[in-house]
Each structure stands twice: as C-alpha cells, then as structure tokens.
What does this fold into?
Amino acid sequence: MSVESIGSIYSVNIPGLTDAADIQAAFQAYHYGSYTSVANTAGIASGGITYWLKQIETDIVALENRPSSGGEVNTTQPAASSFTPAEIPDGFIWVDQDGAVTGSPISATAVFTNSAPSTSLTTGTIWVDKDATNVIDNPFIPQAIIAAKGDLLAGSTSDTVVVLTVGTNGQYLKADSSTTSGLAWSDPGDLTAVSAGTGITVTNGTGPIPSVAIDTATTVDLTTAQTLTNKTLTSPLISGGTSTTTTVAYPILISPEERLNVSATTSTGTINFDLATAGTLYHTANAAANHTLNFRFSSNTSLTNVLTTNDSITAVFMNTNGATAYYPNVITVDGATSGVSVKYQGGTAFAAGNASSVDAYVFNIIKTAATSYTVLASQTKFA
It folds into this structure.
C-alpha cells in the first residue's frame, strides 16, 4: 500500500484512498508517516503526527537553552559561542565581575568597575560603580554614604552632595550660610539678635519661639489696672458700655464738645430721654400737649442699673412751643413716679410753658437709694 498526505498546513499521511481498508496500517501511517515500525526517534519519518510533536519538543528545548533577554556576572566578556544558537541575544547584559575590562564591550553591557569607563564604549553600555564611592558621577546615591540614623543629605554647591549628621534630641534645623551644607542644628530658644523694647523682657523658651514678658510697671497692657501720668490722648473714646460705668477722677476739660439729640417730633405723650445717647434732648417742632418726661439709660438698660447710690447725672430737655405753650407735667425715672422726689427751682412746680419760645429744663437726677431719686428741676425761657 502507498501513503498520501491529507494535511494542507502540516503534512499528515494516511493509506492511499484506493487501497483496501486496514485500520492498523492507517494508524501507523498517521502516527509515524509510513507503515514501518519505529524503534527510536531517529526512525521517525516526516508526514506523521509524531514527527511534528518531535519538532515542537526540539524547539522548546532550544528556547529554554537560549536566554532571550538577560545577563550574567562573569570575569570574561561573553562570546557568541556561549549561546544556542551561537549569537548574543538582544537585551543581554554582562557585568564584569573583577572590573578588568579588555577590548570593546560586546552588545549591551554593564561595566562593573571602580571608576567610570572612558574608552571602548558602545551604545547601551551601563556602568555599575564597584565600590560605590564616586557620588558625583554615580547616577544614584549609595546607601554607604549614610552613617547614622537621622543623617541628612544636603547640597554644598551645584551638583555636590554632603552629609549633615543628625543633631541632638530637641534641636531644630535652621538655614546657616556659614556652614558647608548651608544648614545647622540649633537649640530651642537660640536667639542671637532679639531686641526688646522698654518694659518688654525676651527670654529663651522651650522652643524656637521665645518667651516675651511685659513689665506692667512701665508698659500699658489690656488687663492690669494701671495709672497713666502725663499722657496725651488723641481722639480718645472712653466708654463703659451699656451696663457699666467708667470713672474718670478729677479731669480737667478744655473746651469740651458735648453731644445732643435733636428731634423734629412734637412733644406729646411720653418722651423717653435716653441718657446713654446724649445729655441734651432738643425737640424742634412745636409741642402738641403737656407730656411725661421719662429718664432712662437706654431702651434695654435702666438708669438704676447704671447709677450707684449717691451718684447723680444731669439732663437738659429743650421744648419748643408755638402760640399755645405746653410743658412736661410728669417726671418719671425708669417709667415710674414711685420713689422719685422732684424739687423745683424757687420751690414752685412747673405750671405752664412759654408761648413762642424754647423752654430749657435742667434736671439733676440724684440716686439716693436702690430705686429712690431726688430730682432738682429748673425752667428757663429762651425767646
């Protein structure tokens, strides 16, 4: 019988299609490519499955024996005969173990020497510093340059690295152009040029920020009760707020300017005189009726909360009258007449206002007890 191939990609044999059917012969031809028994791999003929399997096995072994990309450390540079097939594969790197380079490096190589090579260089050459001491030319900083925990690397000049050894516990790092690295370790509170003003003491603290103390005997602060002598205050504002008072003892006032409230409303009903705003209230419109004049500190603070017993405050109310005159016929403090004793100049209570005039009423309000007041009142006509 003859054999013929049925493979269009890989040749695989079977018995001739015109031959008598023989299943055992067919399998033999399919596996070995012929009807001859095969005792070893040398007898395998082309055209059988076994032949192609053997080819695959051979190729795998060849690939395993050939480093497609790798390297080795050796004392001699590699040759093509060292590889299977006999050629140096792309990407292979050789590191010279003893640092004795002879001839030109082959292919892509890594040179393992103490100093950077300058001759016999080819494209792809890599230099590995053997003793790792040449920091300037080395493309990396070796670990050996760090000698102790906390050491720092700093630049001394362009492209130059130096080691700044660690300082002692608690020190901080500061710039110092006088040192090689431009840096220095400094103790906390290390102050060399702090200028303190009069009454201010600067001492070293427990950190880089000093301790600053103010001598209240010579310097004014915001919390200590102090006495100012021979001081000139420019545009001062002395205020006790809405619920407290400010005491100024024995002042000498030169041409003081006084605030007053001017209201264009008519005098009628209850008029609230807020002493927190001004000591003088002037109604410029003609009064419409007799009215109650109520003295208080402000709309939300009573006068009794501001004045202490035996204190007094003076208020001036200026009332404008037309052809028909009116006047304040009721005086109250914090909305009450109880506890308020009004005493009039000349001993006679107000009975009328003055027509076509401005009547000025002056009230000196004296606190005699917790909610008791004596009010001294006077009336003067201005026309």
